[in-house]
Design a protein that fits this description.
The longest helix has 20 residues. Helix 3 packs across helix 4 and helix 7 crosses helix 8. This protein has 180 residues and is an all-alpha fold. It has two domains: 89 residues; 64 residues, no CATH class. It is built from eight helices and no strands.
Length: 180
């Protein structure tokens, strides 16, 4: 599979499974990633990050930890005008993080359903659902995990977890019935 086709499949799968991105508490690796991304984005488009932070918990964390990182690393950092108002409001408690919606069992079931349906759609297009022994081709599970990674979904976060969702969907008495 060439890179262009792979990325086209990833974009399709992202569209199939994209919904609420704030599923659960973040792990340490995720916090560090958000801080790094926030640090980088503050150097490029601080105003855009401020706007995004009003509606996205992840953007709020990027802004908060990115700004803290910049202030720690560079004692001469000049806070851009776009950030001054936000920082002042944050310090006095007028700016708070957008709510993070906790994942319910129904949310998990919905995501698993979307993952299984995405893999089934890729299988209908001729893509193998999972990697076979010794096969070098990209599977539906590979494409789905890439889409989840690009969507910054915290879970499932591995090929094996996605393959297990697909395997469960194949069982005769799964909630998916005989769809797959």
């Amino acid at each position: 599979m060439n890179d262009q086709v792979f990325h086209e499949h990833v974009e399709v799968v992202k569209a199939l499974i994209e919904s609420d991105l704030d599923w659960s508490d973040l792990d340490v690796k995720r916090w560090l990633t958000l801080a790094r991304e926030g640090f980088d984005q503050l150097g490029k488009a601080p105003g855009k990050l401020v706007v995004q932070s009003r509606v996205s918990h992840d953007a709020f964390l990027k802004l908060r930890f990115g700004l803290a990182g910049r202030l720690r690393i560079d004692p001469h950092y000049q806070i851009p005008a776009e950030l001054r108002g936000w920082l002042a409001d944050y310090l006095i408690g007028r700016v708070v993080s957008p709510k993070v919606r906790r994942r319910s069992k129904q949310d998990v079931a919905t995501m698993h359903d979307r993952i299984a349906r995405a893999i089934a759609a890729l299988k209908e297009e001729g893509r193998p659902a999972t990697r076979g022994l010794g096969e070098a081709d990209v599977s539906g599970c590979d494409i789905v995990i890439q889409a989840l990674t690009e969507l910054e979904e915290p879970r499932p976060n591995s090929y094996d977890a996605v393959a297990k969702i697909w395997e469960k969907a194949q069982r005769p008495h799964s909630r998916f019935g005989n769809l797959f």
